[in-house]
Structure formats: structure tokens, C-alpha cells
Amino acid sequence: MATSASLDPDLDALISRLAGPLLPADRAAFRVAAESALIGCGGEGLAYRILRDVWRGYFHPPPDPRLGQPRGAVGLRRPGSARGRSRSPPAAGGLSMYWCAARLQGHREGLALHCLELAGYETYYPRLRDRRIRHGRRIELRPALFPGYAFVLIQLQWHAARWTAGVINLIMDGVVPARVPDDVIAEIRGREVDGLINLAPSPPLRRGARVRILRGPFTGHLAIFADMRPRQRVEILLQLLGGEQRVTLAKKDIEVVR
Q: CA dihedral in degrees (76, 24, 58, 100; nearest 10)?
């Protein structure tokens, strides 16, 4: 991870200036998040935009006595952002806690999850277990169940999560994040085995099975599986021009209809 000693002096000074208005308890966490976000960053303009987004995640505006709402961040307000967004209301006898979905920047999912956790948020980024054979070797891939999205547990407020580095936005329901039911999160977690989700295997290909074409000019059409062909190709029976035509496709271009 980048350290103060390895940072450009101008960027280090900018981080120090941005840390000044923060609460004392947030300054160290902001510096860690800022230095992490600048890894591999090139260009002063990009560095400033990254630091601006990280800073927004740690700045907690004081309440405006005239409105009873938080003041906006002077000089760093996002153009077009709503003023005085309300906090999530506390539940009776405790804090309101709920899951929401965050949209993440491509190829920066790890950064987003890291910075969200530094900001005190619990995250859930479910992954699949995808076993396949490649070049004669069995490999295991771990793609995201929902590419580009993660679940974030909101407790006190959601604004910091919205402006965390690597986060594009939160999925909103009006002016507040859309709530993901706890049952949905529990159901997804219930399908995990050793931290990964196993998808149900596709039904086997048998003669006479109904299949759906996934790619090519006949995408979406239903057909009947006829037989296997060499080099991982299949022959199917497709209704065309009032008659049944035999068409050969790659096996990966069809799926069995359950």
C-alpha cells in the first residue's frame, strides 16, 4: 500500500488539508483510504477526483440550525446533488439497519469493498463456484453472482457509502436507498458452500430434449436436440419456413429448457 513517504509531496499536503475538517476519529482512516485509492493513479486531475470522492465518505456536515438538516460540503459538493438529504430513521428501541445494493466501478470492485469496510460498513459480495475444463485442465473460477454490484449494510447513515471510492451510486428508492429484504440476503447465503455459491447443473442433453438457442441469428428460438457432432457441436431441429430444418451449432450456444 502507498505510504506518506512514497506519495508525491503535493498529494500528501492535499490529503493533510482535506483531513483537517474531519472529526479526529476519522482522520487516520481517511488517510489510509486516500493512500490506498491513489495506488496506480496517474495525473493530478484524476488524483484530485479520487481524493474528493474518498473525502466525501468521511465528512459529516454539522446540522444546519435553520433547516435541522446537515449542511452541504462547501467547495466539494457534487453538481446536481440534493441538499439536506435525510438520514435513515431510527427504529423504535434501536437503530434502523437494512441492506441496500451499491453499483461498483468496473475493475475497482476490490477497492470499493476495501474502502467501504474502512468506512465502517459491512459488505456482501456473493461469488459463484464455476468449475470447467480448459486446455485439458480442471479449473475453478469465482465470478461475482451480480457483476458490478455489492450489498451494503446501512446502520446510521448511507451518505458515506454513496461517496466511497469505487462506488458509482446506490440503488435508490426515491431519495433513500432501496431496501433489500433480509430474506433475500439469507437465501443467497444459504446457498453458499465454503463461501461460494454452487449453481444447479444443467439438465443432460438427450435426444428429443427442448433447447433454447443462446447466440447467433436464431437467438431465443426453441428447438429439439437431435444429436452430438464432433468438436463440441450439436445438431438441432428448428422450425423454419413452415418446415423442420437441421441446424448445427456449437454446444455452448444452446441450453436445455427445464
A: -150
Q: Are 228 and 191 in contact (CB under 8 A)?
A: no
Q: Tell me what pLDDT residue 122 has.
A: 95
pLDDT tens-digit map of 30-67: 888 888 887 766 666 677 777 777 877 777 655 544 44
**pTM confidence score:** 0.51
Contacts made by residues 81-84, CB under 8 angstroms, sequence distance 24+: 82/175
The pLDDT, as a whole number, for residue 66 is 42
Please give the grid coordinates belonging to residue 73. Answer: 460540503
130 with 142: CB under 8 angstroms? yes
- pLDDT for 100-150, tens place per residue? 999 999 999 999 999 999 888 999 999 999 887 778 788 888 999 999 999
Say yes or no to pLDDT of 74 above 70: no
Q: Which residues contact 248 (CB under 8 A, 6 or more apart)?
A: 229, 233, 234, 235, 236
